[in-house]
Structures are given as structure tokens and as C-alpha cells.
Amino acid sequence: MIQEICPTQSRVWIKRGACMVDVREPFEISQLGFGVDQVLNLPLPEITLRYTELPSDQELVLVCWNGSRSRKAAEQLIELGFDVKLIAHMRNGLERWVSKGFPTIGDPSILGDLTGKFTCGGKGNCC
């Protein structure tokens, strides 16, 4: 089972040494990137060809625009032998990251108005 974490949990993982892996295409990252130090770009279509570039003994947080590609990338890495305990994908991706006010590189207004897009579903512990 793939670990699914939110942006707040992703920041915790990164603070303890995880590497963020952005599986978007380079042109997407040039428009808007995650404002963290440890970010590798490995586009989803290249995962099976370039996975050896990733540290297999380090936690990896896989990210994209909205979480769909990062989930697929996590599935692929696990199938390729990465430890499921070290792999997580960030739910709702960059959109949720931006809605939380977390740091970015570029203009987050390209995502449009995210007001009301993300809710806690009545659980009261949004992350």
C-alpha cells in the first residue's frame, strides 16, 4: 500500500532528510516549483529508465500538480524494488501546497483561485 501524505507531513519528512522528487515535466517546474532545498526532477515517463538516479535508502516524497502522477510514480518505484516504507506520494500535490501558503518558486497565481477547493470533510484535522 502506498503511503499518502499531505503537504504538512511532506514538510516533516523533508526536515528529517527525505528527498522531494517532482515527477512533472521540466516546463511545468519552470512555471511553478516547490520552494524546498532537496528537489529532484524525474518526470513520470522517465521513472522506469532513470530510477537508479534516486537514493534507494532514503525517504522519498513524490510530488506533482495534483497527486495523480506522483501516485503512479510511487507505484512504479515500489514495483522496481524500492522499500514501500521509504516512499510516499503527496496528496493533492502542488495545488494543496500552494493553498497552505507553503514556499514556491514562481507565481502561484497560475493555479487560479484555490479557495474552497480543499476541505477536511468534517474530520477537523486538515493538514
Give a verbal description of the structure.
- By secondary structure, this protein is an alpha/beta fold.
- The strands form two sheets. It has a five-stranded parallel beta sheet.
- The chain contains five helices and seven strands, in the order E-H-E-H-E-E-H-E-H-E-H-E.
- It has helices at residues 7-15, 26-31, 47-50, 68-79, 93-99, and strands spanning 3-5, 19-22, 32-34, 39-41, 60-63, 87-90, 104-106.
- The relative contact order is 0.23.
Fold blueprint:
Layout: E1 3-5, H1 7-15, E2 19-22, H2 26-31, E3 32-34, E4 39-41, H3 47-50, E5 60-63, H4 68-79, E6 87-90, H5 93-99, E7 104-106
Task: Offer a quick outline of the entry.
Helices cover 30% and strands 19% of the residues. The protein is of the alpha/beta class. 28% of the residues are buried.
Shape category: globular
With helices defined by DSSP (H or I, 4 residues minimum), what is the helix count? 5
Secondary structure tally: strands: 7
How far apart, in Å, are the first and last alpha carbons? 21 Å
List the secondary-structure elements in sequence, H or E.
EHEHEEHEHEHE
Side-by-side strand order of the widest sheet = 1-6-5-2-4
| Uncertain regions spanning at least 5 consecutive residues | none
Helix fraction, binned, reads: 25-40%
Radius of gyration: 14 Å
Q: How can the largest sheet be summarized?
A: 5 strands, parallel
Mean pLDDT: 92
Coarse structural class: alpha/beta
Strand content: 15-25%
Q: What keywords describe this structure?
A:
5 helices; 30% helix; 7 strands; alpha/beta; 127 residues
